[in-house]
Design brief:
410 residues; alpha+beta; Deoxyribonuclease I, Chain A; 8-stranded mixed beta sheet; 23% helix
Length: 410
């Protein structure tokens, strides 16, 4: 009916350009999420016993009892561990690594599916830290039959997938942005690539970039100086230029763009940092001189040049009580204390271990938002429980992040 009315208005007024399309979009890091087949193999590998070679310091599987199980082993020291197939064994922690059983993982998947169906009414969902398209299908309503997908394949197991309702629009392109993975770096210093999707909705193009940037360089207020010499900040610094390059290319034909995901960076703190954006003091609208470093990812990427690429970060709101809302607002201006973060992460507030400051939604010119982006509470679904030895009462958190959702008009 809506599209019929739009057609009638087009006949009356000669154009549909003035008619806004509405899209609800969400981003959610699902925390090392895997499909059932991968989980079964992962549990098998983590349940093996491993013995250390004292000469090399590496571990290899052992058939003898009494050696160290994979659950308690640094998998990066296990000979032949394939990070393109399996995550670390210590994904879930409750006073020690939870030795995951398949039944508990299946329950976790069902809880995610129920939560999405009940609380994430999005047309488009950008997922981070998922093993595959299949892992996303398994937690969407009706097995994902109502969705189309744009996935990252290859790379490490923490991958990206964008899912959208088939009725929304048609896919024009789905591209892995390899430059964001820093291919010139050695493997241990390569972060995730980006994932870019272009959709045609009501005859108009919308370009979406889903990112999962380098972790552990969160804020200039807690020592996470982007221009610093810490290895994580140095890697994130390298991602600034390829991210800005995508934004400028994506907007070159004035197509509307959305940049969202897990930035692993508190962009609000960058905006409130009073220091010059660049270490040499030069303006961000010109190319960065050789040797100059950026202190602010958002001010470098969203520098207003060209005008069609001038992104803005959506205001963020927490769907919780007044005290929690106040803490969420304060988190944009200062570094929260551990006690404050723990309160926000508790069951009665947002429920996820990383409640605010990492996930963001940015929009380009020509897109407006119906209100702020909302951090959705997952309540008591963000906790782990090792359970009794038989594991029947084991509980696995659905994620250490909360989903974020926004309603856009373009």
């Amino acid at each position: 009916m809506i599209r019929y009315l739009a057609a009638c208005l087009a006949v009356l007024f000669g154009s549909t350009e003035a008619l806004a399309s509405q899209v609800t979009i969400a981003t959610w890091n699902l925390g090392w999420h895997m499909d059932q087949a991968t989980v079964q193999n992962w549990i098998g590998e983590c349940s093996k016993n491993y013995v250390e070679n004292p000469t090399t310091g590496k571990f290899k599987p052992s058939q003898e009892a009494g050696f160290k199980p994979g659950w308690d082993t640094d998998v990066f020291k296990i000979e032949g561990w394939d990070v393109s197939r399996f995550p670390v064994c210590s994904v879930y922690f409750a006073g020690g690594t939870v030795r995951v059983n398949l039944k508990a993982y299946g329950k976790r998947q069902q809880q995610i599916a129920n939560f999405i169906s009940r609380s994430v009414p999005a047309d488009i969902i950008a997922f981070q830290e998922v093993s595959s398209e299949q892992s996303v299908r398994e937690v969407l309503p009706n097995g994902g039959s109502d969705y189309d997908f744009c996935p990252v394949t290859g790379y490490k197991v923490q991958r990206l997938v964008i899912a959208w309702r088939k009725t929304l629009g048609e896919k024009v392109s789905c591209a892995i942005e390899d430059a964001l993975s820093l291919p010139a770096n050695p493997d241990d210093k390569r972060p995730c690539p980006g994932l870019a999707l272009t959709l045609k909705i009501d005859g108009k193009l919308l370009r979406i970039m889903n990112v999962h940037l380098k972790s552990s360089c969160v804020s200039p207020f807690d020592g996470g100086n982007l221009e610093g010499t810490g290895k994580d900040c140095m890697i994130l610094q390298q991602q600034v230029d390829p991210l800005e390059s995508w934004v400028e290319r994506a907007a070159a034909d004035e197509t509307k763009i959305v940049l969202l995901g897990d930035f692993n960076r508190n962009l609000w703190h960058e905006l409130r940092d009073q220091r010059p954006v660049r270490t040499d003091g030069s303006g961000t609208s010109s190319p960065r001189p050789a040797g100059a470093l950026s202190r602010s990812l958002i001010e470098e990427v969203a520098d207003g040049q060209p005008a069609a690429a001038n992104l803005k970060i959506l205001d963020e709101h927490c769907q919780i009580g007044e005290a929690g809302q106040a803490l969420c607002a304060q988190a944009e201006t200062r570094d929260l204390t551990p006690a404050e973060t723990q309160l926000l992460a508790s069951d009665n507030y947002l429920g996820c271990r990383n409640p605010v400051g990492l996930d963001h939604i940015l929009i380009g010119p020509g897109i407006n938002s119906d209100g702020p982006a909302e951090h959705l509470s997952i309540g008591n679904l963000g906790s782990n429980k090792a359970g009794t030895p038989n594991g029947k009462d084991q509980v696995l958190a659905i994620s250490d992040h909360c989903p974020m959702i926004a309603r856009l008009n373009f």
